[in-house]
């Protein structure tokens, strides 16, 4: 296995693990009937617009599973051009979405963005959640770029 191949595998697997950690966190919050993120509880007024908290969180968990599968697809992109482009496009969209979340929650945790919510009551859990998110974004980015550069797996190839 070449260094590039090893990097691609490791980054895709770490991205998959990040998505699975998100999924598990959402399932746990659904079980508790809470919204927010691990370490970042939502304020009470946030519950007013959600009719079924458990269903909402389980829907988010489903999205986490989709992101995990997408990260694994980067190891061997599908042969059909539209599926290759789809996997890469979904990856970049997910990277932007998760990255924005990490930035927003980091701003909340540091008190730089009080409009996003109070500073988390359990800072240790919040820091771990931010670290997992940042690692997830970095690994998913490396895996996506690697998939786009790999001979025979480029999305533009047809």
Topology:
Blueprint: H1 3-32, E1 36-37, E2 40-41, H2 53-73, H3 81-110, H4 123-149
Antiparallel strand pairs: 1-2
Q: Which features does this protein show?
A:
4 helices
Give a description of the structure.
- This protein has 158 residues and is an all-alpha fold.
- The protein is 68% helix and 3% strand.
- The protein has four helices and two strands.
- A two-stranded antiparallel ribbon has the order 1-2.
- Strand 1 (36-37) and strand 2 (40-41) form a beta hairpin.
- Helix 1 runs antiparallel to helix 2 and helix 2 packs across helix 3.
- The protein starts with a helix and ends in a 9-residue tail after the last helix.
- 31% of the residues are buried.
Overall structural class, as computed from helix and strand content, comes to: mainly alpha
Helix content: 55-70%
Strand line-up across the major sheet = 1-2
Distance between the termini: 26 Å
**Number of β-strand runs:** 2
Q: Can you write the helix and strand succession as a string?
A: HEEHHH
Low-pLDDT stretches are none
Global shape: globular
Helix tally equals 4
Query: What is Rg?
Result: 17 Å
Indicate the multimeric state.
single chain
Strand portion: under 5%
Q: Biggest sheet, open or closed, and with what strands and sense?
A: 2 strands, antiparallel
Name the average pLDDT: 91
């Amino acid at each position: 296995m070449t260094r590039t191949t090893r990097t691609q595998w490791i980054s895709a697997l770490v991205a998959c693990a990040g998505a699975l950690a998100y999924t598990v966190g959402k399932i746990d919050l659904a079980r508790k009937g809470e919204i927010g993120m691990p370490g970042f509880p939502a304020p009470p007024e946030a519950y007013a617009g959600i009719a079924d908290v458990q269903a909402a969180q389980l829907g988010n968990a489903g999205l986490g599973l989709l992101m995990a599968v997408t990260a694994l697809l980067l190891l061997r992109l599908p042969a059909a051009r539209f599926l290759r482009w789809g996997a890469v496009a979904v990856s970049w969209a997910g990277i932007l979405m998760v990255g924005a979340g990490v930035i927003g929650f980091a701003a909340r945790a540091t008190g730089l963005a009080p409009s996003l919510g109070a500073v988390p009551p359990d800072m240790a859990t919040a820091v771990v959640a931010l670290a997992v998110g940042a690692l997830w974004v970095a690994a998913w980015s490396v895996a996506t770029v690697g998939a786009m550069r790999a001979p025979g797996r480029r999305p533009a190839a047809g």
